[in-house]
Amino acid sequence: MKEGQYQFKAKKKGGVILVAPLNWGLGHATRCIPIIRKLVKHGYDVVIASDKGALNLLKQEFPNLPAEALPAYDITYTKDPKWFKWKLLLQIPNIAKVMRSERIATEALVKKYGITGIISDNRFGVRHPNLPSVFVTHQIQVLSGWSTPITSWLHQRIIKNFDQCWVPDYEGQDALSGVLSNDPDFKFPTAYIGPISRMKKETLKPTIDILVLLSGPEPQRSMLEEIMREKFKNYPQKVVMVCGVIQETPQEKIIDGIQIFNFLTSHALEALINQSKVVISRSGYTTVMDLAKTKTPAFFIPTPGQYEQEYLAKRLSQNSIAPYCQQSAFDPILLRQLKDYDGWPVTAQKEKLSTLFGIFQGKREF
Questions:
Q1: Separation of alpha carbons 164 and 360, rounded Å
Q2: Hey, which CATH number is domain 16-196+351-361, 3.30.1360.180, 3.40.50.620, 3.40.50.2000, 3.40.710.10?
Q3: Model pTM above 0.85
Q4: What is the average pLDDT across 216-238?
Q5: Within 13 Å and on the Cβ side, how many CA atoms surround 295?
Q6: How confident is the model at residue 348 (pLDDT cuts 50, 70, 90)?
Q7: Distance, C-alpha 344 to centroid of its chain
Q8: Which of 25, 81, 238, 281 has CB 3.0 to 4.6 Å from 213, enough for a Cys bridge?
Q9: Domain limits, the chain
């Protein structure tokens, strides 16, 4: 152990892995939860690193693991979806600046903890030239309208700075995310690890008629919350809302007949989902994976202007899995469409995440 290096309570055999999800909503952090669980199970020490809500969530899920703050991207959306793309383009200089800061922060964490491997979920600068570094993403292709070839090329160029790419989806026709995760022209060591979720399916008595899950960057998260609270005000059926606002402790209140939580830990949320007759949520890919795991009927409302979520919502609808509508058009009566959908498919492909940990033991082949 080098002088001044962090002392783990009980050194594990696998090595020390830095897991760093992007703080863009909570999806990147929540899908890292099963990765962290499996790393610990397979004998690795884990260091968590992120910022703001994502970091706070992981600290509450894993209070015994060391956690570090990384530079924040502070990516924001617009209220008007037509300016969504241009708002993101204006933030590119800041993103590049944060990437440089991430590399400096990663170097410091490597020295402090004796890091032996890195898993970055969409944090572009969290990598190290002398350590096996993995990039986790379901977006091999980044949809952005007419600029899709450009944004996809830029993203793939960033991915190639790492040693491997892990895609949390199935390969080929079974893919939940369709063209997002599959690009036959992308030549790079890429492993399809299957959809990963912190949730598991349980057979529980349905006690919740409608569960509303809110997530994503502001101001759109708050805008959808306002719509949901107005539409379900004193609703005749039981409605529960999880706002996706991470604070020090979970809080519960009842407003206009709606049971409202600021946020819930994984196990508590898992129970709610398994007790719900239908879930209304954004069509973010992590939420899609969670609901596919629990097989809960879903109704999706994509974030206005976000091409990825709009594509996923349309794809799931076309495949007769779940209906959707635009945010401005939502009305509870649309939930009647659920009876015309088949729900989540069953596939023979299995999640194979733990088989890839060999990269951290010097095995670079899948």
A1: 11
A2: 3.40.50.2000
A3: yes
A4: 94
A5: 8
A6: low
A7: 19
A8: 281
A9: 16-196+351-361, 210-340
